[in-house]
Design brief:
Helices cover 43% and strands 15% of the residues. It is of the alpha+beta class. A four-stranded antiparallel sheet has the order 1-2-4-3. Helix 1 packs across helix 7, helix 2 (30-40) packs across helix 7 and helix 3 (60-67) runs antiparallel to helix 4.
């Protein structure tokens, strides 16, 4: 059985999509970012908690502040991308649950009254949303360069607050020359899928 999604869309989102390390100087518009969000906001999370928060780094001053916290090998990539997004988990996501999960408004207090529980749930569900975000960037015809090579505490202090945990930094734009490494191998179906 084949997939319902058109093969060209499959290629755009997965088979031909690559992590970009260089970008053209073509800007990423606010309209493109809104379109990405308006698509990926429908990705599922537990209790519809949607803890991902996105901080767009556009100004040269903010970019300079961010680059200081990137690992050495990621600094030039981040400095040269048309747009950079800091993806973080909101550890106080539960405050929105009465609105976001009206089927069970008491979930806020029943499951998420303790901070350590919220932090674990926020990290897992925001990571899911980060993956949706990357696929959304690809759906917009752009390339994403997600990175975890940065100083999380430095980024949190510089751009966020104590209620947000930075997960990754994503460079976004049209891929530049020699933007990607050769495709790395993937595990075979038999190495991943087990039937019991």
């Amino acid at each position: 059985m084949s997939l319902v999604l058109d093969p060209a869309a499959q290629d755009l989102l997965f088979r031909e999509a690559r992590t970009a390390n260089t970008f053209t100087d073509e800007p990423v518009t606010e309209e493109q970012v809104r379109a990405i969000y308006d698509l990926v906001k429908y990705g599922p999370t537990a209790f519809n908690q949607t803890p991902l928060r996105v901080t767009l780094v556009r100004s040269p001053e903010a970019r300079e502040r961010l680059v200081r916290h990137m690992a050495e090998g990621n600094r030039a990539k981040t400095a040269g991308a048309p747009l950079v997004a800091i993806l973080s988990a909101d550890n106080e996501f539960h405050e929105e649950l009465p609105t976001l999960f009206p089927a069970f408004p008491a979930a806020k207090d029943a499951f998420f009254s303790e901070r350590p529980v919220r932090e674990g749930s926020a990290a897992l569900n925001a990571a899911l949303q980060a993956a949706y975000f990357i696929v959304g960037v690809r759906a917009a015809g752009l390339a994403a360069g997600p990175m975890t090579g940065f100083d999380p505490e430095g980024v949190r202090k510089e751009f966020l607050d104590d209620d947000h945990t930075p997960l990754m930094v994503v460079n976004i734009g049209k891929p530049g020359p020699d933007a990607s490494y050769p495709r790395s191998p993937r595990l075979a179906y038999e190495d991943v899928i087990t039937t019991v």
